Amino acid sequence: MMPEIYFLLQIVLDFLLLLAILFLFLRFRKIMNLPIGEVTSRLAVLEKLSEDLARYLEEERRIYERLKGALEAGVEAWEHIGKDRKGLKEQVLEAYRKGLSVGEIARRFSLSEGEVELLISLERFKEKA
Question: How many structural domains comprise the chain?
Fold first, then answer.
């Protein structure tokens, strides 16, 4: 009984292989029947698409490099701000004590008015405590 199953399976696989070969032959024959002008025009289209893809990838690489540089500069600036945060707080409070307005202080130190007001109110709270 077992050899009959293997034989039947072999026939089915041979038939499927024969169908695959026939399909590939028909596809190859269709390609071979194309006029040379058609093949040339398709190759020209493929070449143009390849060039467009190369330009697109180059532009994406440039954008990536610019973004990477901007992120590195941002990280460096953020680390620098972190180191100078105490000094900045003292400078803001000193300017406030000298009588500068919140808006002037914010412009001078590139802060928002809310940040300046927060620093001032925190200092007032510490003085009251």
Answer: 2
- 53 and 76 belong to one structural domain: yes
> Do 92 and 107 reside in the same domain of the chain?
yes
Tokens of 37: 């002008």
Beta carbons of 119 and 89 less than 8 angstroms apart:
yes
Can you give the pTM of this predicted structure? 0.38
Q: Which domain holds residue 96?
A: 84-129
Q: Is 108:97 a contact under the CB 8 Å cutoff?
A: no
| Cα(38)–Cα(44) distance, integer angstroms | 10
Quick one: tokens of 114? 């809310």
User: Which alpha helices (DSSP H) does 33-112 contain, by range?
Assistant: 36-83, 85-97, 102-109
Flag residues of the chain having pLDDT under 50.
none
What is the rounded CA–CA span in Å between residue 65 and residue 106?
33
- CA-CA distance, 23 to 11, in Å (whole number)? 18
CA distance 111 to 89: 11
